[in-house]
Amino acid sequence: MILVVSYPGEEHTDDVVSRLERAGREVVRIDLADFPAASGLSCTWEPGAPDAYRVHTPQGEVDLARARAGWWRRVRAHTLDPLVRDPDAVAFALSETNEAVSGMLDALGCPWMNPREADAAAHHKPLQWAVARQVGLTLPRTLVTTRPDDARAFIAELGVGKVVFKAFIAILEAWRETRLVEAQDLEQLDSVRFAPVIFQEYVPGVDLRIIAVGGKLYTAELDAQDTSYPVDMRMVIGEAKVRPAELPRALEDRLLALQRRLGLVYGAIDMRRTPDGEYVFFEVNPAGQWMFAQERTGLPISQAVADHLAVMADAGAREVVRR
């Protein structure tokens, strides 16, 4: 059995799950938002009996102890019964639910794409950048700060129009594109003290979305230089010129080393190739999207993810037999 932890309607998950099921694989999908309001769980440890981790799904009760591989992708927060209203009770119920569900998943002992702890740590960009430099990747000049004077000095040194500012993570409640620092933004720099801001040297060139699945890389080149918003290719995917691309072998080795150091099986890596051929690393998203690149290039990324999960499940089954 392959366990998928994601939410309904996530198109990447839907595509991969359908491929696994067509290949005859048993897939059980759970949504963390169902616990505890819509889905029950019972975990038991009994003398002389195997550990059991039973959850209720739309298909019926399933013992997650049968999972031979897990896929952790774009999860949602737990939700409570609306009868639980007192703030202290809400905090307590959510904390208890997280302890039970997280512990249950971590106890399964199967291989994961990605391991949950590694996935959580790798979402932190300062860690990514530190490891990226250690494996030999090139980064743009970068400042993370809550000090307005440091922000002013960084911008003054590089020049207005040559620095971008961006958010650490894209959240639905407050999504923000990457923006160039313009003259009018200088008046707002005092607001940096309210929350950390990423400032980076603007790097012109062609964007690369590199999908790492296990030890393989699938690269799409997204040329947004002549679009209406070349600063952030996410804003102009439909305008960009998209095609498959090849990376230098030495760069591939460094990217795979980054994945290993971060403990990631899957990652969506963003880089930019400058006009003089330098490759600059921006970030790796442990749950990044690939469908937009797959649809425009024909790169078989969904199938690669499905195949790797199947390989992981087979390896997990062999490990159970050896025990």
From TrEMBL:
InterPro entries: ATP-grasp (IPR011761), MvdD-like_ATPgrasp (IPR048936). Coiled coil: none annotated. PROSITE patterns: ATP_GRASP. GO terms for cellular component: cytoplasm. SUPFAM superfamilies: Glutathione synthetase ATP-binding domain-like. GO terms for molecular function: ATP binding; metal ion binding; ribosomal S6-glutamic acid ligase activity. GO terms for biological process: SOS response. Keywords: ATP-binding, Ligase, Nucleotide-binding. Residues 129-310 form the ATP-grasp domain. This is ATP-grasp ribosomal peptide maturase.
